């Protein structure tokens, strides 16, 4: 009798059960993986998934790590909803950081409340400017944005290098590739003494709330969704695909640029050749893991941050090889992405008509 | 001419891993699936190809292992996205994270060991000819294979029933389904082919380009391959041009470095700048005649109903 | 030497104030005094932070080899932890801090980019001891160390000067930081001493690690007339190219002769083991102080791997003479007259460059093309 894979309709039960199933599968497979590596599996899992949640400091670090991811992902989600494929957030972040750093260095000798706001503004404009290159090429010449936004990322990273190896090099820095440490006026305050949690985390949450409101409750949000889901219908409705493309890139680039400013004015405190461990790329996963919903994105960013910090923990405390943290992280993502599909899967026997299988 | 020969040979080497991986991704995308896990599949191919060649001493076994490793990775992706309808973009990126980790974990046993490079063609008489010999008759199997696949793919996509069916699936899965085409099965096949080619692209790195295994040795080539598919507007011949353009500018900038006293970073930017410029010129021209857009169903999940 | 490096300013830019730093230091002294008595039997916890994967077979690999040497040397008396592939961005501070809060009393941060994070964490953990590689900022509980990589380059330059027939040497370089520039200059000066017409062509890759690009650069250099390849990047790819193209080559970080049995003339081997062992000993016997160590051939941190048989006896002797001269102090790799690329005299005849100037060198010597 032929088998047929089928799926159940979506339901609340599935939505609740899916993340639980994902966690269960991750823990189960992780247990086997860590055991195979000759480690204490329970302890390693504890270090990976639980320990980072137990100290105040590591909770603040969760915020430090999740804030840029959430901020960038919220910006990108706007584009992804409209089917605009901006995968160059890392480059937009870099240019934003350069713009903010440029302001910080230009007013290095000044003290004033206006320096930080100016840096943040510069970073948003910088990110937008970099994102407007693919937007322009796409709307004017029809150049596919996947290629341009990705290639521009490599270019942005090289521009950063050129600056920190060249004109912006710290004059007292022994010719190492770094700028001066920003002055106090150009550094973000910390929210909690002794931690690195900075106001960027609050901004990320606010941005997510605003983005959620805009996407769910306003005409613009509706328009973006329509352009993405049904471009032809959108055209009939008079929605302009070009304008949506521009909007998507400017929002995505601005958010990424702002995240760049928060990094350099926060945890890093200067411009260096490596600013992020690939936040701009990780944010793409975060955006989809959060189902392009700003509130889901905040949760997804915290989860991704947990797996990174947990991975460091497991290396330090349990001696887990770094490569294995990548395997574990990949698995966790697989399960999370697949869980509701898995629950909705239903294998049915198809009754054969008159004893003969129906050929499709 | 004599002087240009080694430079051209270097360009061929630089372009081949990109061409291999991108050829696979081109078919995947033509079937309407976007797999961003090329880097992960390439790394698994590079590691498996190297390890098996080292253990068995057989390059054929090594290449088979690389292809199998790439396909195994692709199968994970296909199961997630096609059977379980998981999001393609996120699944692809997760595949990259997973592949970087897994290849490093298994491959740690093989770091720092040399292996014999893939043998080069040696045709009595022909391979020793000046200029023509090194240009045409002194390469390894994967180089000939990568170039041969270009017309084969063109023929498959444009002249065979199966190819037309695959394209139909990529343009509209619903319509293809309505016509009775097995959408999911075709997409599975495309994904597996993508994994096979990415695996071989990785094996070219670890067995020919730089015959060794080191963690993350693809160094971002999977991403470039992704961009090249876009550059090619999903057409095989243009892919060949794109891969050789990118590889060529990359080699050229090494020779040009130091000229005019410009910072080396500007030269390092050239391949990226050149690709953007050339694509812009092509796209601007194409916009006037007819557009070569992405497969309409690219990245959209298909859920067969009923 | 120590004058060349700056001590961290007392007033921190952010985080802990000076007042709490002083209190912390006082409390730490108390804890330390009682701690060493109460827990004399507990193993010393040591942490290592690597910028790359230990599987890079280059820089991080060499540090990890040394970590294993520490474990072998001290056995149960130490408990060693390492974290690899730590990116030089916001993550490194958390990793270093985490190591400190897990009770690691001695932490080696092995990359330049970990400098500011190490200093910041050190302020918060005054009782732990930190060692930062290749940087320049010291603190009451942060010592710094580095290798005189350029000394090995001078030895290899001597060999290359003899072995190169075309008079053109290709140098595959990563980034124009002082460490790399020092190496290129020392190599060039030594080669020119043998053959004044030697030219050294440099290609900057702007990455530490991309085997494919490293190979491409070596090919381009050979196509440009180089018959000897030197590298200051992490993988052995350039060695393999030299092998297949019939050129000579010098390896870096570890002996790479397996990858190029004919081409590989010798390699500079980084052996951080003796340094780490010395530092651990000092912590164990309570004499650790923040120091500023720049070890080279003399101390064995830099070693010259065995020469290939292709290097004639007299050339080996000439190279050994340079090596021994550096070791006994009779020869300084940077002895004037030295001119820069523009032909401007930078070091007058008979004089040498001070360590302080060497550590921030940003100019290339005459005869280098880049």
UniProtKB/TrEMBL annotation, chain A:
It comes from Pseudochelatococcus contaminans. It is found in: Cell membrane. One of its GO terms (molecular function) is transmembrane transporter activity. It is a multi-pass membrane protein. InterPro entries: ABC_transp_permease. Keywords: Cell membrane, Membrane, Sugar transport, Transmembrane, Transmembrane helix, Transport. One of its GO terms (cellular component) is plasma membrane. The chain crosses the membrane at residues 12-36, 56-79, 91-108, 114-137, 149-168, 201-224, 245-262, 323-343. The keyword Membrane applies. The keyword Glycoprotein does not apply. This is Simple sugar transport system permease protein. The lineage of its organism: Bacteria, Pseudomonadati, Pseudomonadota, Alphaproteobacteria, Hyphomicrobiales.
From TrEMBL, chain C:
Keywords: Signal, Sugar transport, Transport. SUPFAM superfamilies: Periplasmic binding protein-like I. Residues 45-326 form the ABC transporter substrate-binding protein PnrA-like domain. The keyword Ribosomal protein does not apply. It comes from the Bacteria. Signal peptide: none annotated. One of its GO terms (cellular component) is plasma membrane. InterPro entries: ABC-Purine-Binding, Peripla_BP_I, PnrA-like, TAT_signal. This is Simple sugar transport system substrate-binding protein.
